[in-house]
Amino acid sequence: MTKLINIKNNKTWNEFIISSNFEFYSFLQSWEWWEVQKLSWKKVFRKAIINSKNEIIWVLQILLVNAKRWSYLFVPHWPLIIWDYFKVLNDIILDLKKLAKKHKCSFVRFNSTLKNNKINKHNFKKLGFKNAPMHEHAEDTHLLELGESNENIFNNIKKKDRYYINRAVKEWVEIKINNKQPQIDSLIEMHTNHAHRTNWKNNYSAFSKKFINNLYKIFGKNISTISASYNWKIESILMTIQFGKTCVYYIAASDIVSSKFSPNYLCQWEAIKNAKASGALIYNFWWVSPDSNPKHPIAWVTKFKRKFNWYDYSLLHAQDLIISPKYYINWVIETTRRLKRGYYYKKPE
Question: What pTM did the predictor assign?
Fold first, then answer.
């Protein structure tokens, strides 16, 4: 017998996730991420499922999204469970529907952390879910394991790309790792300019200044900002967010002048070493394209991420539970948007 309850203690929440040794988790599951959402005036529901012994076996955070034409409940990279996933989901699906109807939502969207295979897709389908017309968070990711020595990790990078790193060191490219306001301001400015330069061909939109500042405000020391400068000019800058033993490469920007030894490579390598030094066991490069097709909208950055050789990890595509017929209006709009932008998703294996 399971029961859905509210959780109000951030320590209980975070410790359950970190100590449960889930195969895949990230800062999206942390208590802090949802505090960032609340600063954006979004309503958050934190739920946990306990068994007959009052032990937590499941946690999920639900975001109420109020769009212009519809409202829906969004469950990003959730739930996390240490028991039978679909049995528990079946037990609480009525509660989710009630919550959705209470807030006049037309659907519930699950962006789960389950692997992208036919069994998981079939089990969602049996519960009434269907493929979402559009993604909302990273589904195909690239992961680097940090358990080996720095030397072994470095040697696993292709020779040509190791050259860029070594050359940048010899050219005295300056690395800075800090969260001082000038560094944050540089990240925001370069991120915004980078988006303006590339949006016309890559549908790349910048995060707002307010959102980025909120990340620093809530995550604090779990964020690292790394920049690479040559001749006193920042050519590459990025942000990582660490939660537990996973560090995510989340925001980045560049304005490369020194292409012969592109500081992007050294900046990324320093971020990897910094994550390992901070206790991370996994470095998550976040979103990559599902294949090597150069026409995919994010093929340009995916090629760079995969140069730091390790392995891709594919999550099941987002699944929607329909609550009202208004869902199909959203389906048409999002499908049109996806086709226009050129996105497609890997089929379950």
Answer: 0.92
Q: Which residue has 């959102």 as its token pair? A: 211
Residue 198 pLDDT: 66
> 349 lies in a domain?
no
The answer to whether residues 129 and 190 belong to one domain is: no
Q: Give dist(CA 286, CA 140) in Å, integer.
A: 8
Is 155 contained in some domain? yes
Among 63, 36, 67, 61, CA closest to 113: 61
The residue count for the chain: 349
- Are 179 and 38 within one domain? no
Task: Measure the CA–CA gap between 202 and 333, rounded to whole angstroms.
Answer: 20
Q: Does 210 share its domain with 89?
A: no
Range of the domain at 263: 141-313
The SS3 of residue 60 is strand
Task: Render pLDDT for 208-244 as a digit per residue (tens, 0 to 9).
Answer: 999 999 999 999 999 999 999 999 999 999 999 999 9
Tens digit of each residue's pLDDT (9 = 90 or more) over 276-307 = 999 999 999 999 999 989 988 888 889 999 98
CA–CA dist 253, 238 (Å, integer): 6
